Amino acid sequence: MKTIYAHTSEIDDPEAAVAGIIAQLDLEHQALKNSVGLVSCYAEFISSGVIAALSGALPFPIVGITTIAAASNAAEGELSLFLTVLTADDVEFVTGVTDPISGEDEAPFRTAWEQTGAKRPDRPALMLSFAPLLMNVAADFYVEIWNDITGGVPNFGTLAVDHNQDYHESQTILGGQTWPDRYVFVFCYGKLEPRFLIGGISEEKAFREKGVVTASQGNLLKEVNGGSVGDYLTGLGLGRDEQGNLVGINSYPFILDFNDGTQPIIRVMFAVTPDGSAVCGGKMPVGATLTVGTINGAEVLHASTEILMKALKAAGGRAMLIFSCIGRYFAQGFDTTAEMDKAQEILGESPFSLVYSGGELCPVYGKDGSLTNRSHNDTMVICIL
Fold first, then answer.
1. CA–CA gap between residue 89 and residue 210 (Å, rounded)
2. 0.90 cut: is pTM over it?
Protein backbone atom coordinates (compact mmCIF):
# COMPACT_ATOMS: atom_id res chain seq x y z
CA MET A 1 0.00 0.00 0.00
CA LYS A 2 1.12 3.53 -0.77
CA THR A 3 0.02 6.78 0.83
CA ILE A 4 -0.27 10.21 -0.77
CA TYR A 5 -0.76 13.38 1.28
CA ALA A 6 -2.27 16.77 0.53
CA HIS A 7 -3.56 19.71 2.55
CA THR A 8 -5.05 23.16 2.15
CA SER A 9 -5.91 26.14 4.33
CA GLU A 10 -8.11 27.66 1.61
CA ILE A 11 -11.54 27.56 3.28
CA ASP A 12 -13.52 30.13 1.30
CA ASP A 13 -12.64 29.24 -2.30
CA PRO A 14 -13.58 25.64 -3.20
CA GLU A 15 -12.10 25.88 -6.67
CA ALA A 16 -8.71 27.03 -5.39
CA ALA A 17 -8.72 24.49 -2.57
CA VAL A 18 -9.46 21.57 -4.89
CA ALA A 19 -6.95 22.70 -7.51
CA GLY A 20 -4.22 22.85 -4.86
CA ILE A 21 -5.02 19.40 -3.53
CA ILE A 22 -5.20 17.80 -6.98
CA ALA A 23 -1.82 19.27 -7.84
CA GLN A 24 -0.26 17.89 -4.66
CA LEU A 25 -1.68 14.40 -5.20
CA ASP A 26 -0.41 13.96 -8.78
CA LEU A 27 -2.75 10.99 -9.16
CA GLU A 28 -1.76 10.32 -12.76
CA HIS A 29 1.68 9.21 -11.59
CA GLN A 30 0.96 8.18 -7.99
CA ALA A 31 -2.36 6.34 -7.82
CA LEU A 32 -2.57 2.55 -8.03
CA LYS A 33 -5.56 0.34 -8.88
CA ASN A 34 -7.70 0.93 -5.75
CA SER A 35 -7.85 4.11 -3.66
CA VAL A 36 -9.73 5.80 -0.84
CA GLY A 37 -9.23 9.24 0.67
CA LEU A 38 -9.21 9.87 4.43
CA VAL A 39 -10.12 13.49 5.12
CA SER A 40 -10.06 15.60 8.29
CA CYS A 41 -11.01 19.24 8.31
CA TYR A 42 -12.07 22.31 10.20
CA ALA A 43 -15.89 22.37 10.15
CA GLU A 44 -16.14 25.41 7.86
CA PHE A 45 -14.71 23.38 4.96
CA ILE A 46 -18.13 21.73 4.86
CA SER A 47 -20.31 24.86 4.91
CA SER A 48 -18.06 26.61 2.37
CA GLY A 49 -18.53 23.79 -0.14
CA VAL A 50 -14.93 22.57 -0.23
CA ILE A 51 -15.76 19.00 0.85
CA ALA A 52 -18.47 18.64 -1.78
CA ALA A 53 -16.22 20.08 -4.48
CA LEU A 54 -13.32 17.83 -3.48
CA SER A 55 -15.50 14.75 -3.57
CA GLY A 56 -16.72 15.66 -7.03
CA ALA A 57 -13.19 16.13 -8.32
CA LEU A 58 -11.66 12.86 -7.09
CA PRO A 59 -12.06 9.50 -8.84
CA PHE A 60 -12.43 7.63 -5.52
CA PRO A 61 -14.53 8.10 -2.36
CA ILE A 62 -13.45 10.25 0.58
CA VAL A 63 -14.35 9.45 4.18
CA GLY A 64 -13.55 11.25 7.39
CA ILE A 65 -14.45 13.68 10.15
CA THR A 66 -14.31 17.26 11.26
CA THR A 67 -11.54 18.03 13.75
CA ILE A 68 -9.83 20.86 15.57
CA ALA A 69 -6.31 20.26 14.20
CA ALA A 70 -4.31 17.80 12.13
CA ALA A 71 -0.84 17.20 10.74
CA SER A 72 1.19 15.09 8.34
CA ASN A 73 4.92 14.84 7.69
CA ALA A 74 4.51 17.76 5.28
CA ALA A 75 2.44 20.26 7.27
CA GLU A 76 0.24 20.94 10.29
CA GLY A 77 -2.66 23.25 10.93
CA GLU A 78 -5.79 24.11 12.87
CA LEU A 79 -7.82 25.92 10.17
CA SER A 80 -6.94 23.33 7.56
CA LEU A 81 -8.05 20.31 5.57
CA PHE A 82 -5.81 17.25 5.37
CA LEU A 83 -6.24 14.38 2.91
CA THR A 84 -4.49 11.01 3.12
CA VAL A 85 -4.98 8.80 0.08
CA LEU A 86 -4.50 5.06 0.58
CA THR A 87 -3.81 3.41 -2.76
CA ALA A 88 -2.89 -0.19 -3.61
CA ASP A 89 -3.09 -2.90 -6.26
CA ASP A 90 -3.71 -5.77 -3.85
CA VAL A 91 -5.97 -4.09 -1.24
CA GLU A 92 -9.61 -3.19 -1.88
CA PHE A 93 -11.59 -0.52 -0.03
CA VAL A 94 -15.33 -0.76 0.60
CA THR A 95 -16.91 2.35 2.11
CA GLY A 96 -20.22 2.55 3.95
CA VAL A 97 -22.40 4.64 6.23
CA THR A 98 -25.12 3.78 8.74
CA ASP A 99 -28.59 5.22 8.92
CA PRO A 100 -29.03 7.98 11.56
CA ILE A 101 -28.10 6.80 15.06
CA SER A 102 -30.56 7.87 17.78
CA GLY A 103 -29.34 5.67 20.63
CA GLU A 104 -27.61 2.42 21.43
CA ASP A 105 -29.60 0.45 18.86
CA GLU A 106 -27.81 -2.16 16.78
CA ALA A 107 -30.17 -1.92 13.78
CA PRO A 108 -28.35 0.87 11.84
CA PHE A 109 -25.06 -0.99 12.14
CA ARG A 110 -26.41 -4.37 11.06
CA THR A 111 -28.15 -2.78 8.08
CA ALA A 112 -24.90 -1.09 7.03
CA TRP A 113 -23.06 -4.41 7.32
CA GLU A 114 -25.67 -6.17 5.18
CA GLN A 115 -25.14 -3.52 2.50
CA THR A 116 -21.33 -3.83 2.51
CA GLY A 117 -19.27 -6.53 4.22
CA ALA A 118 -21.95 -9.22 4.28
CA LYS A 119 -22.01 -9.22 0.48
CA ARG A 120 -18.44 -10.48 0.22
CA PRO A 121 -17.16 -14.00 0.90
CA ASP A 122 -13.88 -12.78 2.37
CA ARG A 123 -13.31 -11.07 5.71
CA PRO A 124 -11.92 -7.52 6.04
CA ALA A 125 -8.34 -7.32 7.24
CA LEU A 126 -9.03 -3.92 8.83
CA MET A 127 -11.91 -1.58 9.58
CA LEU A 128 -11.33 2.19 9.60
CA SER A 129 -13.99 4.00 11.62
CA PHE A 130 -15.23 7.59 11.57
CA ALA A 131 -17.90 7.81 14.23
CA PRO A 132 -20.26 10.59 15.33
CA LEU A 133 -19.85 12.17 18.76
CA LEU A 134 -23.25 11.62 20.39
CA MET A 135 -24.21 12.36 23.98
CA ASN A 136 -26.38 9.23 24.28
CA VAL A 137 -24.10 6.68 22.60
CA ALA A 138 -20.86 5.49 24.19
CA ALA A 139 -17.73 4.67 22.21
CA ASP A 140 -17.76 1.27 23.94
CA PHE A 141 -21.09 0.55 22.23
CA TYR A 142 -19.57 1.29 18.82
CA VAL A 143 -16.70 -1.08 19.52
CA GLU A 144 -18.88 -3.86 20.88
CA ILE A 145 -21.55 -3.82 18.16
CA TRP A 146 -19.01 -3.84 15.31
CA ASN A 147 -17.00 -6.54 17.05
CA ASP A 148 -20.11 -8.69 17.22
CA ILE A 149 -21.21 -7.98 13.65
CA THR A 150 -17.83 -8.48 11.96
CA GLY A 151 -16.55 -11.29 14.15
CA GLY A 152 -13.72 -9.27 15.63
CA VAL A 153 -12.27 -7.46 12.61
CA PRO A 154 -9.59 -5.03 13.93
CA ASN A 155 -11.33 -1.67 14.31
CA PHE A 156 -9.22 1.49 14.20
CA GLY A 157 -10.67 4.98 14.16
CA THR A 158 -11.97 8.09 15.80
CA LEU A 159 -14.99 10.09 16.93
CA ALA A 160 -15.62 13.46 15.28
CA VAL A 161 -15.00 16.78 17.06
CA ASP A 162 -14.88 20.44 16.09
CA HIS A 163 -13.78 23.83 17.44
CA ASN A 164 -16.94 24.55 19.47
CA GLN A 165 -17.19 23.93 23.20
CA ASP A 166 -20.22 21.66 22.73
CA TYR A 167 -18.97 20.19 19.41
CA HIS A 168 -22.30 20.96 17.71
CA GLU A 169 -20.67 21.20 14.27
CA SER A 170 -18.89 17.86 14.46
CA GLN A 171 -19.64 15.76 11.37
CA THR A 172 -18.74 12.51 9.69
CA ILE A 173 -18.01 12.55 5.96
CA LEU A 174 -18.61 10.20 3.04
CA GLY A 175 -18.26 11.58 -0.45
CA GLY A 176 -19.74 15.05 -0.60
CA GLN A 177 -22.24 14.32 2.19
CA THR A 178 -21.82 14.96 5.90
CA TRP A 179 -23.84 14.06 8.99
CA PRO A 180 -23.84 14.73 12.73
CA ASP A 181 -25.32 11.30 13.56
CA ARG A 182 -24.07 8.67 11.11
CA TYR A 183 -21.14 6.26 11.39
CA VAL A 184 -18.88 6.16 8.33
CA PHE A 185 -16.44 3.30 7.76
CA VAL A 186 -14.01 1.64 5.37
CA PHE A 187 -13.50 -2.12 5.15
CA CYS A 188 -10.03 -2.95 3.83
CA TYR A 189 -9.66 -6.32 2.10
CA GLY A 190 -6.52 -8.06 0.93
CA LYS A 191 -2.86 -8.39 1.85
CA LEU A 192 -2.81 -6.04 4.80
CA GLU A 193 -1.16 -6.76 8.14
CA PRO A 194 -1.70 -3.70 10.34
CA ARG A 195 0.10 -3.20 13.62
CA PHE A 196 -1.32 -1.13 16.48
CA LEU A 197 0.26 0.94 19.24
CA ILE A 198 -1.30 3.00 22.04
CA GLY A 199 0.27 5.72 24.15
CA GLY A 200 -1.53 7.37 27.05
CA ILE A 201 0.22 8.52 30.18
CA SER A 202 3.22 7.11 32.00
CA GLU A 203 2.49 4.53 34.66
CA GLU A 204 5.81 5.46 36.23
CA LYS A 205 4.40 8.87 37.13
CA ALA A 206 1.08 7.56 38.46
CA PHE A 207 0.12 7.22 42.12
CA ARG A 208 1.63 4.04 43.52
CA GLU A 209 -1.52 2.85 45.29
CA LYS A 210 -3.59 0.58 43.06
CA GLY A 211 -7.31 0.03 43.48
CA VAL A 212 -9.76 -2.67 42.45
CA VAL A 213 -13.18 -1.88 40.97
CA THR A 214 -15.62 -3.48 43.41
CA ALA A 215 -18.88 -1.96 42.11
CA SER A 216 -19.83 -0.30 38.83
CA GLN A 217 -22.63 0.16 36.33
CA GLY A 218 -21.43 0.72 32.78
CA ASN A 219 -19.29 3.86 32.85
CA LEU A 220 -20.37 4.74 36.41
CA LEU A 221 -17.63 3.74 38.85
CA LYS A 222 -19.34 3.23 42.21
CA GLU A 223 -16.76 1.62 44.49
CA VAL A 224 -13.02 1.09 44.67
CA ASN A 225 -11.63 -1.32 47.25
CA GLY A 226 -15.11 -1.61 48.77
CA GLY A 227 -15.47 2.13 49.43
CA SER A 228 -16.61 5.22 47.54
CA VAL A 229 -14.52 6.60 44.71
CA GLY A 230 -14.43 9.96 46.49
CA ASP A 231 -12.87 8.41 49.58
CA TYR A 232 -10.36 6.52 47.44
CA LEU A 233 -9.28 9.70 45.63
CA THR A 234 -9.01 11.82 48.77
CA GLY A 235 -6.96 9.02 50.29
CA LEU A 236 -4.46 9.56 47.46
CA GLY A 237 -4.24 13.25 48.31
CA LEU A 238 -6.74 14.87 45.93
CA GLY A 239 -8.24 17.94 47.57
CA ARG A 240 -11.80 19.18 47.97
CA ASP A 241 -13.19 22.69 47.60
CA GLU A 242 -15.35 24.56 50.14
CA GLN A 243 -18.43 22.71 48.89
CA GLY A 244 -16.71 19.36 49.35
CA ASN A 245 -16.26 18.67 45.65
CA LEU A 246 -13.08 16.98 44.44
CA VAL A 247 -10.81 19.44 42.64
CA GLY A 248 -9.24 18.88 39.21
CA ILE A 249 -10.52 15.37 38.52
CA ASN A 250 -10.17 15.88 34.74
CA SER A 251 -6.40 16.04 35.24
CA TYR A 252 -6.31 12.64 36.96
CA PRO A 253 -7.40 9.88 34.56
CA PHE A 254 -7.45 6.22 35.50
CA ILE A 255 -5.00 3.70 34.06
CA LEU A 256 -7.32 0.70 33.82
CA ASP A 257 -6.14 -2.92 33.63
CA PHE A 258 -8.93 -5.36 32.70
CA ASN A 259 -6.82 -8.21 34.15
CA ASP A 260 -7.49 -10.29 31.05
CA GLY A 261 -3.97 -10.18 29.66
CA THR A 262 -4.57 -7.17 27.40
CA GLN A 263 -2.76 -3.83 27.56
CA PRO A 264 -4.06 -1.32 30.15
CA ILE A 265 -6.05 1.62 28.76
CA ILE A 266 -6.93 5.15 29.89
CA ARG A 267 -10.32 6.19 31.29
CA VAL A 268 -11.05 9.81 32.15
CA MET A 269 -13.30 11.05 34.95
CA PHE A 270 -15.90 13.59 33.83
CA ALA A 271 -17.62 14.18 37.17
CA VAL A 272 -18.16 12.82 40.67
CA THR A 273 -21.78 12.39 41.76
CA PRO A 274 -23.06 13.43 45.20
CA ASP A 275 -22.86 9.82 46.43
CA GLY A 276 -19.15 9.66 45.55
CA SER A 277 -19.39 7.71 42.29
CA ALA A 278 -17.35 8.74 39.25
CA VAL A 279 -18.76 9.25 35.74
CA CYS A 280 -16.05 7.91 33.40
CA GLY A 281 -15.35 7.94 29.67
CA GLY A 282 -16.00 4.22 29.20
CA LYS A 283 -16.98 1.02 30.96
CA MET A 284 -15.33 0.27 34.31
CA PRO A 285 -15.77 -3.50 34.79
CA VAL A 286 -15.84 -5.01 38.26
CA GLY A 287 -12.54 -6.74 39.04
CA ALA A 288 -10.44 -4.40 36.93
CA THR A 289 -7.40 -2.82 38.57
CA LEU A 290 -6.90 0.91 38.36
CA THR A 291 -4.17 3.42 39.04
CA VAL A 292 -4.63 7.18 39.09
CA GLY A 293 -2.34 9.06 36.71
CA THR A 294 -1.88 12.70 35.78
CA ILE A 295 -2.22 14.51 32.46
CA ASN A 296 -0.72 17.90 31.63
CA GLY A 297 1.26 19.41 28.80
CA ALA A 298 4.62 18.01 29.89
CA GLU A 299 3.21 14.53 30.49
CA VAL A 300 1.49 14.48 27.09
CA LEU A 301 4.74 15.31 25.31
CA HIS A 302 6.68 12.78 27.36
CA ALA A 303 4.22 9.99 26.56
CA SER A 304 3.93 11.06 22.91
CA THR A 305 7.70 10.99 22.51
CA GLU A 306 7.85 7.44 23.85
CA ILE A 307 5.10 6.04 21.62
CA LEU A 308 6.24 7.91 18.49
CA MET A 309 9.78 6.59 18.89
CA LYS A 310 8.40 3.05 19.17
CA ALA A 311 6.18 3.61 16.14
CA LEU A 312 9.05 4.95 14.04
CA LYS A 313 11.11 1.87 14.78
CA ALA A 314 8.21 -0.55 14.24
CA ALA A 315 6.98 1.07 11.02
CA GLY A 316 10.18 0.58 9.06
CA GLY A 317 9.07 3.15 6.52
CA ARG A 318 5.45 2.03 6.36
CA ALA A 319 2.72 4.66 6.68
CA MET A 320 1.10 5.48 10.02
CA LEU A 321 -2.43 6.64 10.79
CA ILE A 322 -2.50 8.46 14.13
CA PHE A 323 -5.42 9.74 16.21
CA SER A 324 -4.78 11.73 19.37
CA CYS A 325 -7.42 12.71 21.92
CA ILE A 326 -8.56 16.32 21.91
CA GLY A 327 -7.87 16.27 25.66
CA ARG A 328 -4.18 15.98 24.84
CA TYR A 329 -4.52 19.00 22.53
CA PHE A 330 -6.10 21.08 25.30
CA ALA A 331 -3.51 19.89 27.83
CA GLN A 332 -0.89 21.82 25.83
CA GLY A 333 -2.44 25.11 26.94
CA PHE A 334 -1.44 28.00 24.71
CA ASP A 335 1.14 25.88 22.87
CA THR A 336 -1.55 23.97 20.98
CA THR A 337 0.76 22.65 18.25
CA ALA A 338 3.31 21.13 20.64
CA GLU A 339 2.29 17.50 20.12
CA MET A 340 2.06 17.95 16.34
CA ASP A 341 5.48 19.58 16.37
CA LYS A 342 6.84 16.61 18.31
CA ALA A 343 5.36 14.17 15.79
CA GLN A 344 7.01 15.97 12.89
CA GLU A 345 10.31 16.16 14.77
CA ILE A 346 10.41 12.44 15.57
CA LEU A 347 8.80 10.95 12.47
CA GLY A 348 10.56 13.28 10.05
CA GLU A 349 10.01 12.13 6.48
CA SER A 350 8.28 8.90 7.51
CA PRO A 351 4.74 8.98 6.08
CA PHE A 352 2.08 9.73 8.70
CA SER A 353 -1.12 11.61 9.37
CA LEU A 354 -2.18 12.81 12.83
CA VAL A 355 -5.75 13.90 13.57
CA TYR A 356 -7.29 15.05 16.86
CA SER A 357 -10.27 13.05 17.99
CA GLY A 358 -13.21 12.92 20.39
CA GLY A 359 -12.46 9.33 21.32
CA GLU A 360 -10.09 6.73 19.98
CA LEU A 361 -10.86 3.23 18.70
CA CYS A 362 -7.90 0.88 18.56
CA PRO A 363 -7.23 -2.81 19.21
CA VAL A 364 -4.95 -3.81 22.07
CA TYR A 365 -2.75 -6.88 22.25
CA GLY A 366 -3.06 -9.78 24.65
CA LYS A 367 -0.12 -11.70 26.02
CA ASP A 368 -0.57 -14.28 23.26
CA GLY A 369 -0.52 -11.60 20.56
CA SER A 370 -4.28 -11.74 19.96
CA LEU A 371 -6.20 -8.51 19.36
CA THR A 372 -9.11 -7.12 21.38
CA ASN A 373 -10.96 -4.05 20.12
CA ARG A 374 -11.19 -1.23 22.68
CA SER A 375 -12.23 2.40 23.01
CA HIS A 376 -9.82 4.85 24.65
CA ASN A 377 -9.67 8.23 26.39
CA ASP A 378 -6.79 10.74 26.48
CA THR A 379 -4.75 8.42 24.26
CA MET A 380 -2.67 8.53 21.11
CA VAL A 381 -3.45 5.50 18.93
CA ILE A 382 -1.38 4.44 15.93
CA CYS A 383 -2.07 2.05 13.07
CA ILE A 384 0.95 1.03 11.03
CA LEU A 385 -0.37 0.01 7.62
1. 49
2. yes
